[in-house]
Every structure is written in C-alpha cells, then in structure tokens.
Amino acid sequence: MTKTTKKSFHTNTVKKSISVNASKEKVWRKISNIVGLPSWVIDVKKTTYLSKKRRNVGAIRKITFTDGNTIEEHIVAWKEREYFTYIATEGLPLRAYVATISINAKNKNTTQITWQSYFNSKKMTSKQFTEFVNFIGSFYETSLKNLKELLEK
Question: How many separate domains does the chain show?
C-alpha cells in the first residue's frame, strides 16, 4: 500500500507592507495604473485591459507572466487615493482570491503601502499550500521593494 497525501481545500491570508519616501499622490498615481504592473511586479511580462473601463470598480485586467501563465482580475472596490480591491477569476490554483492594495500617508513625504490577500485553494496537499503561501508572500515582498525603488528615484 502506498501512502497517499490527502488533498483538501485550504484558506489563508498574506499581508505585506513597505514604507516609501514618496508622497501619497505619487504612490497612488503609480499603483492606480492597473496595467502598469510590468514596471514593478516581478515576472509580469505585460498587462492589458479586458474592459473599456480603465479605473474603478468594473475595470478588468489580464496579466501575462514571463512563464506564459495568465491571470484575469476584476476591480471590485475602489476608493480614490486610498485603496483598490480586486479578485482573480482565472489563472491561479485557487477557488477564491481577493486582494487589496492600500496606501496610508505617514507624513507629507512618506507613504505606507500594504498589499494583502485572502485565498482559498483548489484541492492540494498541506505542503503544496504552504509552498504557495510562502510564494505569494515573497512575491508581494519583492514586488513592493521594486515599487519602493521606482518611487524613490
């Protein structure tokens, strides 16, 4: 008898923040361009609109990664100069994925950026899920560091 590893659904959250030496307006201009990801999100080759809408609730984007994978995301909440929330509808090994990128001015020239998400996996082992959670965490961290470098130029 070979031992099989039980696959099940898993839920978790990931939250990463970074402080940047840039005004809230400058940070918002950068992150609210929802197809501007190739300049700061790691491994993104291109991002295109799948909707006529470019900003706010109802805007839809398709992200193409350097490995050829694609993800479709829909903006589901938007508060100008504060945050936006999006859901991934295709392309991840998940049944649910909702993420928010928010900004908070610490003072005139310092802004905190927070990227957090909730997700529920398709059936996978605990080990696979732990690896996925760790991957998302480092993906957010590296991307936020890239964003900081870009904004502080």
Answer: 1
Q: 111-147 pLDDT, tens per residue?
A: 999 999 999 999 999 999 999 999 999 999 999 999 9
Inside any domain, residue 28:
yes
Tokens, residue 2 = 């070979």
Q: Is 3 part of a structural domain of the chain? A: no
Which residues constitute the domain of residue 109? 11-151
CA 83 to chain centre: 12
Burial 17-27, CB ≥16 within 10 A → b, else e:
ebebebbbeeb
124 within some domain: yes
CB 20 within 8 A of CB 148: yes
Q: For residue 52, tell me if it sits in a domain.
A: yes
Interatomic CA distance for residues 54 and 49, integer angstroms: 7
Q: What is the CATH number of the domain that holds 32?
A: 3.30.530.20
What's this model's pTM, rounded to 2 decimal places?
Answer: 0.94
Distances (CA, A) of 27 to 34, 132, 151: 13, 28, 7
In tens, the pLDDT along 74-92 reads: 999 999 999 999 999 999 9
**Inter-residue contact 137 to 14 (CB < 8 Å):** yes
